[in-house]
Amino acid sequence: MRILVIGDSCEDHYIYCASDRFCPDAPVPVLNPVKTIKSLGMAGNVSDNLRSLGAEVDILSNTEKIKKIRYVHERTNHMFIRVDEGENNIKRVKPSLLEIIDWGSYDAVVISDYCKGFLTEDDIEYITKQHSLTFLDTKKPLGAFAEHTTFIKINDVEYNKTKSTVTPTLKEKLIITLGSKGAIYRENSYHVNEVDVRDTSGAGDTFLAGLVYYYIIHTVIDHAINMANECASQVVQKKGTAKVNKNELKYGI
Predict the structure, then answer these.
(1) Contact in structure between 229 and 183 (CB atoms under 8 Å)
(2) pLDDT tens per residue across span 127-141
(3) What is the pTM of this model?
């Protein structure tokens, strides 16, 4: 299985800290860093999760560095603050790079668009016209540019912001994630078991990776959504931007 992922990527930095006192000159806790864990985020996280499931993945992403730096209490996993760097300097993908891709060598194309400037609506429309199986996750308001996509993954908050622009054609493609309530596709509900949530960072990326991987294997969207739910449920029980462990999936192959 070979998959192409296109979109904005970042570095997730988790600085785990101890804290046992407040600053004497301001009502804020004093943080003492204990350890730092780094991983790829956004499109990079989608790619890493697909690799964890067993896919061969190529990624086309920004070369400029975006950092999401989180200061987290090591014992309770409470996040004190997140600091983002570099997201205003992202250059658009060169159209010439899209034109030389051997689209037929991939089983699917995944667009992970965090709307940082790497992809325009025209780029997304072009990409979705090049392959018969495309998956889109975008922070942009949906419109005609997305109508050639096979499936569109969107969370409920994003859907509520863009539902006025959703055409009947787009609505048929939407897989709406609902967090602890599972997902909806064409008015069918896909529920998840209740789990102890430690960190939701990157759960949407993991859902997308599971959706793509299991749809390619089974070509049954209902099964793919259920497996995507299971993948996301697994990682939210772990700290940080965790990657799915295929061996821990109850119903996966």
Answers:
(1) yes
(2) 999 999 999 999 999
(3) 0.90
